[in-house]
Structures are given as structure tokens and as C-alpha cells.
């Protein structure tokens, strides 16, 4: 039986039994200042990705430097002024901002908040799959923010650093998910459309990406029970939004198999180069 069919059957079986809720497998720092340790408040937690930030002057004080091409983020704050109107003192709030830079965009500055970092190691089988795909497509993986995403317009993948994940397996499962999205680019399988996150086509694409990720995890031999349960939970979350669980999954599984084959290049790899499926 093919890897794709094995994974699809396992997911459907898991959904029929009921599964635990999906959880994000990496730690999300709040947005904080690296020098002071202060947490940015209010709307800034929505504007800024999680992580450590510094002003340009703070970077200079710490004797660090900005990486070429780095872009600033804005921190919003309010100041109060008093004006006299009609012989009354009126207090007004004025919105201002200042620029900060994510520590990932600096050199020579160390993180001060390593409590949640884990000693996760790279996995050779997974690296082979990823590097083979990146070499074929010319894509690169960025690791500048505490978010996992694929940007179709720029054709760029971003994932958090491996040290922020619950485990190495969770990290590679997330990379596989974003790589799966990238197979839908118009220059590859031409599957992606410009859609809102609440649309049915967006939900179907999330199903495709996660089922592809589960197939790749099985193929690479990292499909632990915890990894698989979390993938199944993610699939369930999106399938329920479509209100057609089984049909949606079968449709997505067919698309996922195409993505899976495209990534590992089964037809173009010699047997000696193929990575065997782990016996489970």
C-alpha cells in the first residue's frame, strides 16, 4: 500500500474515534524589549510578532549591528497634552510611535530569554527531503519570526527556529506543511488561489498541506503518535469548517498525494537515493 493511502486511512480512522484538540507546536514569545525585559503592551502585542526587539540606539549601546536590508517595526504609544478651550482645560491623547528591530535582524546581540529554547537536533532524513526540494525550486526558508507561513506572492517560506518547537519532529512537521503549500504555486502544481482565511478554498488548502505533511512525516520516519495526533486534529479542525469531513478529506488526500510526489520526486529518484518509509 502507498504511503499516501496509509496516511489517509489512518487519519480517517483517527477522526472516527475522536481526537484531542490541535495545538501550535512552538513557543510564542510575547513581544519584549531585549535590553529592559519589558513586555510591549496593548495594541503592540497585535502589531508585533512575538520575540525580542531593540531600538536602533539600544543596538548601538550593545555594540551590535543591523543586518543588511532589515526593516523596522513600529511601537505605538500615547502622550497627553493639555489645551485650553472655552476657558476650560482639555486633556488630549496623541498617538506617537518609535521604531524597533527584531533581534533576528541584528548581529552581535544575544538573546536574554532562553528559558523556552530546547536542544532540538536536525534529522538527516528530513533534511534530505527539504534540501532536495529547495534545490529543485530555488526556494529558501527564512527563520526570522515566531510564525509559520508560506507567502505565495514572494514565494517564500518562514518557520520559527527549531529551538522554539516542542521537538525536532514538530519542527519538521511544520516545515513540511509550509513546503506543501508552496507546491501549489502557479509555477508548480498551480493549486493556490487568492482566498480569504474563512473561505472554503482556504480550508481545503489547509487540509492538503497538513495531509501532505503527515505523508512526508511517515515517509521520513518521524511520524510519532504525538505528531500524528496533532496532524489529525488540525485536519479535523478545517474539515469541520467545511461541514463535510470525509469527502473533504478524500479530496484533499488526492491533492496531497500529488504534492507529496512532487516534493520527493519519486519518478526522478533512483532506488538508492530514496528514503525508506519507517516500519511502523
Q: Taking all residues together, what is the mean pLDDT? A: 83
Structural class: alpha/beta
User: What's the number of domains?
Assistant: 2
Strand count: 9
What does this structure look like?
It is a single chain. This protein is of the alpha/beta class. The chain folds into two domains: about 180 residues, no CATH class; about 80 residues, no CATH class. Helix content is about 40%, strand content about 15%. Strand 1, helix 2 and strand 2 form a beta-alpha-beta unit. Helix 1 packs across helix 6 and helix 5 crosses helix 6. The longest helix is centred in the C-terminal third of the chain and has 21 residues. It is elongated. The two termini are about 15 Å apart. The C terminus is likely disordered.
SSE inventory with pairings:
Layout (H helix, E strand, L loop, with lengths): L2 H15 L13 E3 L10 H4 L3 E4 L1 H6 L3 E2 L6 E13 L2 E15 L3 E2 L16 H14 L3 E2 L6 E3 L4 E3 L9 H15 L17 H21 L4 H18 L2 H20 L16
Parallel strand pairs: 1-2, 7-9
Antiparallel strand pairs: 2-5, 3-6, 4-5, 8-9
What is this structure, in a nutshell?
With 280 residues, the protein is α/β, with parallel strands linked by helices. Helix content is 40%, strand content 17%. It has eight helices and nine strands.
